[in-house]
Amino acid sequence: MDALSWSHSRLRWHVRLRRTLFFGLTFLTAGCASALLLDVLQANSLSGIELVGLLLFFALFAWIASAFWTAIAGFAMQLLGRDPAAIQLSEVAGRALRTRTAIAMPVYNEDPRRVAAGLEAIWSSLAQESQRGAFDFFILSDTRDPGIAAAEEAMWHRFLARHRAAGRVFYRRRRDRSDHKAGNIGDFVRRWGAGYDYMIVLDADSIMTGSALVTLARVMDAHPEIGILQSLPLPVGRETLFARLLQFGARLQSPMLSSGLAFWQLGESNYWGHNAILRLQPFARHCTLPRLPGKPPLGGAILSHDFVEAAFMRRAGYEVRQLPELIGSWEEMPANVIDYAARDRRWTQGNLQHARVLGFPGLHPLSRVHFLTGIVSYVSSPMWLALLLVSSLVSAIETTKRPQYFLPGPHTLPQWPQIRAGETGVLFALTLVVLLLPKILGAFLALRDRHLRRQFGGAARLCISLLVEQFFSVLLAPSMMLFHSTFVAQTLLGKAVSWNAQDRSDRGVTLREAFRRQKWHLGFGLAWGAIMLRVAPHFFWWLTPVLVGLICGVWVTAWTSRTSAGRSAQRWGLLLIPEETAPPRELMAVRRANLDAPAASAVSSPEAATRLRSASTQI
Predict the structure, then answer these.
(1) Cα-flanking dihedrals φ and ψ of residue 322, to 5°?
(2) What residues contact 542, with CB distance under 8 A and at least 6 apart?
């Protein structure tokens, strides 16, 4: 056996071992938890409805156990400092590029000033790199509003004049705007892809450093087996309390979780649709999206195209990799619960469509796992709701039962009801460990690094911020459970989502709007709580975290959408992230541009304003 074959054999052994450990530990953890619950339920005989609850519990515990073991793997890799089977950035440092890369930014009814600020920051950062000549930039517009389109084109002309970038920065507005973002990218690949080796896809709110862009291209040059290389985009730039909670949680946990995903996925990782580099020839040849049979929402154009493109690239024999250690990749988050849920409405439909793709021939087994993961990420909400409702029903039935001490037959001794307090306590503790330990490990990694700890505001403020983030996570989770359950039901009942521009401002939500969107959450929470307090008061107290989240959801949505609340947290040194306390120049440039135009509007007419805001109406 030659050295290359031995190396490939050793890598395959590593892959099998890692995935066997990951899936084995995931299902073993879920099995142990389910066995404890089964022991508790069997103590007084197992009913049919309890069996349904047990099956739901096993599936949901396997779901959270997978995140737990991913975090454990990522924690281990972060402690070691490197993954021996991962891409080593040190090996490509200083490598001269002999290839051409197109940086493509699709836009759709976006604020031209925000697009200009991102373009300026990225291009100026790239200009500092010695390999800058290997990159061209394309603004790919699908904008329908003529006023916004005119502003986009004027912005592009001003940029060319200021940077003398003619022949390097291009603007194209499609006439045929079919298939949304995937169609926009596909049109670019067909028309201009032959002139480039790679394409880096950005969103309108993406920011990447010139160093990160060059590093992505260098890795692709050094690894011709890679078809898609995904960076880790970290959320930044928003001021509301809701967005700060998301930014802090993601910044603390995402590097560890991404390292864990890369550990067991290796060359069968996933693509998230932006802040990633694609090898253009195989992408053009193998990643054309089919139209699914039938009508939307489950048929027609594929909305969540990125998972499908990654699966097709892997089917063609190319690896799909993550690069979690790459510094300099960012994105922005929705500023409030309503806009966050509106974005998830489209993602729900797109992920449920993947059920129609699961059976496509030739897909790698892990690609099918990615599809299932995307589906379960939304279907898990109605599953949690069903489990809670089943538990409520079981508790109500048990409360109304009269104890039967003497069973029919020749029994001389009474049969006392059994309470398995020990098993119940162990199960509760195991659940808390699986849910909370990943957050504690993420905080530990930040606390052990003196430089990073200081950028999070210091040890004390970081720990308080973690408690604040966890508190609001508990408050917000019940509302998101009902939102996602509604979205799944709407999709399965045939209600398709519209494709609207995202609101990327720090938009606040009034109590009136929050009540209009969440009044059913409030009513459901009040009715559920009243019924359980009446028929099963002992179980009511177990439900209080869920009930409080539903009943207070309207006020929590409105209050967390305020920039004043977010800035108060900042003044107190809470929910800080390194990109805020030690901001890179690219993010500072975008922030300055936004502050210079506080009244900037992306629209030129009331109709355009309506379309730009209309994403939130989808919920």
Answers:
(1) -105, 155
(2) none
pLDDT digits (tens, 9 = 90+) for 73-111: 999 999 988 888 888 888 888 899 999 999 999 999 999
CA dihedral (501, 506, 510, 511) positive or negative: positive
CA distance 327 to 377: 27
Structure tokens that stand for 461 in this block: 């403020």
Decide if 324 contacts 82 (C-beta within 8 A): no
Q: What is the mean pLDDT of each run of 10 residues along the chain (619 residues)?
A: 54 85 97 91 77 94 96 95 86 91 95 93 95 96 93 95 92 89 93 95 95 97 96 95 97 96 94 96 95 92 94 97 94 94 93 95 96 95 94 84 57 52 81 95 96 96 97 96 96 85 84 96 96 91 94 96 96 96 94 67 45 46
Judge if the upstream peptide bond of residue 334 is cis by omega within 30 degrees of 0: no
Q: 200 forms bridges with which residues in the sheet?
A: 103, 277
Q: DSSP string covering 241-259, please?
A: HHHHHHHHHHHHHHHHHHH
Segment 534-558, tens digit of pLDDT: 998 888 998 999 999 999 999 999 9
Number of H helices, E strands in the chain: 21, 10
Do the beta carbons of residue 298 and residue 292 sit within 8 Å? yes
Q: Are 246 and 333 in contact (CB under 8 A)?
A: yes
Structure-token pair, residue 473: 């996570």
82-88 long-range Cβ contacts below 8 angstroms, 24+ apart: 83/259, 83/262, 83/263, 85/11, 85/14, 85/15, 85/18, 85/266, 86/262, 86/263, 86/266, 86/325, 87/219, 87/223, 87/321, 87/323
Distance, CA of 42 to CA of 47 (rounded, Å): 9
Question: Cα separations (Å) of 355 from 180, 233, 359?
Answer: 20, 27, 8
Helices (H), 287-364: 305-315, 337-353
According to DSSP H, which parts of 266-364 are helical? 280-286, 305-315, 337-353
Q: Report the alpha-carbon distance of residue 124 to residue 165 in Å, rounded.
A: 11
- Burial letters for 364-375: b for 16+ Cβ neighbours within 10 Å, e otherwise? bebbbbbbebbb
Which residues does residue 230 pair with via DSSP β-bridges, in sequence order?
276, 322
329-331 sheet: strands from edge to edge = 207-208, 329-331, 234-235
CA atoms of 4 and 2, how far apart (whole Å): 6
89 and 215 Cβ atoms separated by less than 8 Å: yes
- CA distance linking residue 401 with residue 41, whole number of Å: 15
DSSP category for residue 97:
P
Q: Rounded to 5 degrees, what are φ and ψ at 200? A: -100, 120
Helix (H) / strand (E) containing 481: helix 459-492
Whose CA is closest to 604, among 110, 106, 116? 110
Could you tell me the two tokens for 205?
């709110």
Q: Count Cβ atoms below 10 Å from residue 249 Cβ, excluding itself.
A: 21
Q: How many Cβ atoms sit within 10 Å of the Cβ of residue 60?
A: 18
